[in-house]
Amino acid sequence: xxxxAYIRKRILAVRNGMSDWERQEAGREITQKILHLDEYRxxxxxxxxxxxxxETDTIPLLETAVESGKRVYCPVSKENGTMEFYRFxxxxxxxxxxxxxxxxxxxxxxxxxxxxFSVFMLMPGVAFDGxxxxxxxxxxxxxxxxxxxxxxxAAAVGFECQMVESIPVEEFDVRPDLVVTEKRVIR
Length: 187
Prior knowledge:
Layout: H1 4-16, H2 20-35, H3 38-42, E1 45-47, H4 59-67, E2 71-77, E3 83-87, E4 95-96, E5 102-103, E6 119-123, E7 127-128, E8 134-135, H5 141-148, E9 153-157, E10 178-180, E11 185-186
Parallel strand pairs: 1-2, 1-6, 6-9, 9-10
Antiparallel strand pairs: 2-3, 4-5, 7-8, 10-11
């Protein structure tokens, strides 16, 4: 079986090789699939992420969620491997954060775990398999966050070219409830 490091390197090369047009078209399909999920529709709060580099552009989905009345929060990541979610209102309010990734300002409202609202979470990733295993970027931000707060639904989001046959699993890996690509939703 391939190692996580090898899969990460191989799949990032494939994803980085996608054309801007391919990424935009696939991103629109991913957005539509998420907008039609019952789990997303029921949620009062969306914990999203800002697509960066060759990831899918999540801004259209985040802005649609804000317009529909959902409260939207995106991660602010720290050097120590932790993250907290802060309110996202619009693209123009984002600031440069950890590793130059756009993120909300920490002056915005922080998401408080333990509220009485229904929460739908989006997770980025590098590679996914049919059993909903996920390889992230190797820092464990989402695994650590999901150990202390589990939303009603966590959906990993990526392109179909990021799907692999099998991912090696370690005891600290936390599986999402769904994997969403432009071609399918894996439950």
